[in-house]
Write a structure and sequence with these properties.
CATH topology of the largest domain: Alpha-Beta Plaits
CATH superfamily of the largest domain: Reverse transcriptase/Diguanylate cyclase domain
Structural class: alpha+beta
Number of domains: 2
CATH architecture of the largest domain: 2-Layer Sandwich
Radius of gyration: 21 Å
Shape: globular
Order of helices and strands: HEEHHHEEEEHEHHEEHEH
Distance between the termini: 70 Å
Number of helices: 9
Strand content: 15-25%
Largest sheet: 6 strands, antiparallel
Helix content: 25-40%
């Protein structure tokens, strides 16, 4: 069992916004080598009590079912999976972990990160003490740890098809870091990447419903799909997200609208005959127009 290198610990922090652990992928049973204080508090155990224990042994019955080996095969392919962690000391709750393979400097998977998404705490009494996600597994955006844009687009297309037949509403909010290129030019690409990770975590922390989906859609851009919200509720959500990001107080000296990193937003109802790509294009056009409207006036000569 090998401890985490500083490089892998940094990768772990990038993809793990909440309680997290790391397990050595090269040993059978995935022995745990790191547990954050936040995760230990959620599970009501001490971190030291989990170090060295096999992650699979904590989540599966003995002997493990054949599907348990499918979990490791999926991780070997670089895919993320869900695992229900069952601990007697967890005070009547089972905790769903999202497992993500971590690549070392040589791009070979050596460890697995396990983190708890916001909606992960599920009621006790589930007869299945582990769960591999059904269907296609979620690919992650390497920069932010959010689900990939491809996965977001597929989920959105399915939600729109369902909404068209049921009459329910689906809307998409596009969020753009104001003057992102100026921020990157001022502080460099690494600082811009760190800023985007902070903003991604801040937005994700604002969301409260399991049906809300978030992804990074481009340089300085995020897309969020929401179901069943009125126009007023969508505006209130966008405002709450913008305030939360502004309260991060990330200095942005080149912005003309705030001295801190801030967000602009636009929203449109999804569904109908528009494709996801067409929807994104219209949202970007609205944001571009918003930026033009807020440019400082050109001084007269």
């Amino acid at each position: 069992m090998e401890p985490l290198s500083p490089h892998l610990l940094g990768r772990l922090l990038e993809v793990s916004p909440l309680g997290m652990l790391a397990a050595d992928f090269r040993d059978d049973g995935l022995p745990i080598v790191y547990v954050s204080k936040a995760l230990a508090e959620m599970l009501k155990v001490s971190p030291d009590s989990l170090i060295g224990k096999g992650l699979l042994s904590l989540a599966m019955p003995d002997p493990p079912p054949p599907e348990g080996w499918m979990l490791q095969e999926q991780l070997q392919l670089g895919e993320s999976v869900s695992l229900l962690l069952v601990l007697p000391s967890s005070a009547g709750t089972d905790v769903q972990l999202r497992l993500v393979p971590l690549a070392g400097k040589g791009d070979r998977f050596s460890h697995v990160a396990g983190y708890i998404p916001p909606e992960s705490v599920v009621a006790a009494g589930n007869s299945t003490p582990w769960r591999v996600s059904t269907g296609s597994t979620v690919k992650l955006d390497r920069l932010t740890g959010l689900p990939s844009l491809d996965d977001f687009s597929r989920s959105l297309a399915l939600s729109c098809a369902h909404a068209d037949s049921s009459g329910e509403s689906v809307s998409v909010i596009m969020l753009r870091v104001a003057y992102y290129n100026l921020y990157q030019d001022t502080f460099g690409s690494q600082a811009a990447a760190s800023m985007m990770r902070l903003v991604a975590r801040s937005i994700a922390g604002t969301l409260r419903r399991s049906s809300d989906r978030l992804a990074r859609s481009g340089k300085g851009e995020f897309v969020l799909s929401v179901e069943g919200l009125t126009d007023a509720q969508i505006k209130a959500l966008a405002k709450r997200i913008a305030e939360r990001v502004r309260n991060l107080s990330i200095h942005h000296p080149k912005s003309t609208i705030s001295r801190y990193v801030s967000l602009r937003s636009s929203a449109l109802a999804a569904g109908g005959n528009s494709s996801v790509e067409q929807l994104f294009t219209r949202l970007r056009e609205k944001l571009d127009q918003s930026e033009e409207d807020q440019l400082p006036p050109i001084p007269r000569l």
